[in-house]
Design a protein that fits this description.
By secondary structure, the chain is of the alpha/beta class. The protein contains nine helices and five strands, in the order ββαβαββααααααα. The chain has helices spanning about 25-35, 50-55, 75-85, 95-125, 125-145, 160-170, 185-195, 195-200, 205-210; strands at about 1-5, 15-20, 40-45, 65-70, 70-75. A five-stranded mixed sheet has the order 1-3-2-4-5. The protein starts with a strand and ends in a 7-residue tail after the last helix.
Length: about 220
Amino acid sequence: MTPIAGTGTLMRNTLTLFSSTDDVTSHRVRMVLAAKGVAYDLVLVDPANPPEDLLDLNPYQSLPTLVERELVLYSPGVVGEYLDERYPHPPLMPIDPLGRARLRLALVRLEQDWVPQIHAATHGSKSQAEAARKRLRELVAQSVPLFKVARFFLNPEISLADCALVPILWRLQSLGVALPKDGKPLEDYVNRMFRHPAFVRSLTDAERKLRDLPA
């Protein structure tokens, strides 16, 4: 990826991602791009002061926003599946309909249950943050059995679900949420994924500072 601090003209000749410097949904799409090995221009955006380009392209001014020529996409789920179809190798979705449906449901759970807790723990009031950290601890503990059955999250190979989950797990330590003591399968997954080349490439400088990469 090529970081660009700002821009004054619409960039439609190359693949361009408008992204926050530190947000789980933007990080999710950056990890998909890194897993695919796709070159792109990265425009780091202050959500409180979005550039004119983003205002023109996306009526919701939401991040991440992906632009490729005349195509503009701005839902992380839509962006992830588009990239998986547009750049098919390596595939990040199962080939069978049942596996794809299960993965999509897992993404819905992450979007509706986990991501709001990360946002509340990061940006909420003191009471909201504490409630969010408590809920995150419960969600983490409940997830441990899932990592006993496959090397990756619900799949024998890395998938869009890993791209959505690992950015969440990366932030837990900085939010004061520890992995459960009896969660070795999850701990092994975390240590393995934090070393994964796609994840390492997906990090912004701000995200790297949230914690140290394992040796």
